[in-house]
Amino acid sequence: MTAAPAPVREPAWSLPRTAIGLWVTESLVGVLVTAVVVGALLIWVPADLGGPVPFLRWAVPIAAVLEALVAVGVRPWLKHRVYRWEVTGDAVYTRTGWLTQTWTLVPVSRIQTVDVTRGVLQQLFGLATVAVFTASSQGTVHIWHLEQGIAQRVADDLAVRAERTRDQAT
């Protein structure tokens, strides 16, 4: 009788708290776009059109406000609690998703490329994303919104270890 494999443990590291500020800012941008669309609906669609229009003129703004409350007031904190990452001697792995959770694991021996990217908002918050690529499109792992210095150190370390592993295999 064989023993069951040990369960995958939770990755050790959470993201910096500045990631919450980034997510709140991204959500606020989305809320502003939604507010413009809802405002256009209220301005340019006559209330006396009949059909579902009178209902939509009050239901759509209420739905937009509820979405804004969740997007700005709840989602960033839940994402911060759930998102975790770790680099071990053998692998890079992340856990993402607040409704549907996804675990992604990439063995160091499979790493082909490591990139560090900084979007406009990430630059404002001093954050960067480390992307670890394999030959398989399914094997890519992103470590989102790390502090810039940590992201660069993680990427450099992974690149060195991946190169060392390739050298040992040949």
Beta content: 15-25%
Total helices: the number is 5
- Which word captures the global form? elongated
- Spatially, the strands of the biggest sheet line up as 1-2-3-4
Going by helix content, strand content and strand pairing, the class is alpha+beta
Which series of helices and strands comes N to C? Answer: EHHHEEEEHEEH
Mean pLDDT: 89
Briefly summarize what is shown.
This protein is of the alpha+beta class and 170 residues long. The protein has helices at residues 18-44, 53-73, 75-82, 120-125, 148-169, and strands at 13-14, 84-87, 91-96, 102-107, 113-117, 127-133, 141-147.
Written overview of the protein:
This protein has 170 residues and is an alpha+beta fold. The chain contains 5 helices and 7 strands. The strands form 2 sheets. The chain has a 4-stranded antiparallel beta sheet with strand order 1-2-3-4. The longest helix has 27 residues. The two termini are 37 Å apart.
Task: Sum up the structure in keywords.
4-stranded antiparallel beta sheet; 5 helices; alpha+beta; 7 strands; 170 residues; elongated; single chain; 3-stranded antiparallel beta sheet
Q: Secondary-structure map with pairings?
A:
Elements: E1 13-14, H1 18-44, H2 53-73, H3 75-82, E2 84-87, E3 91-96, E4 102-107, E5 113-117, H4 120-125, E6 127-133, E7 141-147, H5 148-169
Antiparallel strand pairs: 1-2, 2-3, 3-4, 5-6, 6-7
